[in-house]
Amino acid sequence: MPNRLSSLFESGRKNLLSVYYTAGFPELDDTLPIAEALQNSGADLIEIGIPFSDPIADGPVIQASNDVALKNGMKLNVLFSQIKEMRESVDIPVLLMGYFNPIFQFGVENFCLQCKQCGIDGLIIPDMPLWEYEQKWKLVFEKFDLFNVFLVTPQTPLNRILKIDDLSSSFIYVVSSSAVTGVKNGSNEGQIEYFNRINSLKLKSPILIGFGISSKTSFKNACKYSNGAIIGSAFIDVLSGLSDKKKERYSPVGQFVDSIISE
Fold first, then answer.
1. Does pTM surpass 0.90?
2. What is d(CA 56, CA 41) in angstroms, rounded to the nearest whole number?
3. Annotated catalytic residue: which of 10, 58, 67, 263?
4. Does residue 10 have an active-site annotation?
5. Segments making up each domain of the chain, as ranges
6. Which of 59, 143, 215, 257 has a 20 to 30 A CA-CA distance from 177?
7. Cα 3 vs. chain centroid, distance in angstroms?
8. pLDDT at residue 93 in the model
9. Cα–Cα distance for residue pair 90/92, rounded to 1 Å
10. Does domain 4-261 have CATH number 1.10.3720.10?
11. Which of these is catalytic: 30, 47, 127, 145?
């Protein structure tokens, strides 16, 4: 089976919606049902966050969700057990996003093997150095058909952007600003200049824009300069208010996705 990320981007579809949430939040067993609800609601791809005690690039909303998930007992072995049968009900691309320390402690090759067995398509590891991926882990990722997604920011120098594009098998995660996740900056002249600069490079890799995307307006604005956009903190805010009633519990997921993608 071809990697689902390849199939998605080769389709040429635009305005792709990627949604991030933290595994094990708000309750430990919510991980898979949220993924199912996102697919059923029309999300194009999913990023499941691996909770970590020191998520330095994340704002207060995602940090708080990490704290709750860890207190709930979320660990990598628990996550893999939750999503072991994920591909029986979820067909869209799914990535895991997290910091390198828990992955290294788990064992990188074992981690990649577990990802492969669960049907994970790609990884986003913001604090993994580019050189370390290229020299140590690239062949391991490729062995298990996992695409590594790199991030670029407004401060990323040209030579690094081109190197990232060369090493990328999937999309590039374009961070909209230098702020942490969840900061609602809106599109300003500096951001538009930055997005246009990225597009002027004619990179081979598609791009998704993330950080600060929280509404239909900010999503559509980001999509003007990319293949789609990523929403995280705004969605986690929605998850914080999930009902305890089983039949109604995940209805806010669909309502949120619809509020972003509906015409």
1. yes
2. 31
3. 58
4. no
5. 4-261
6. 257
7. 16
8. 98
9. 6
10. no
11. 47
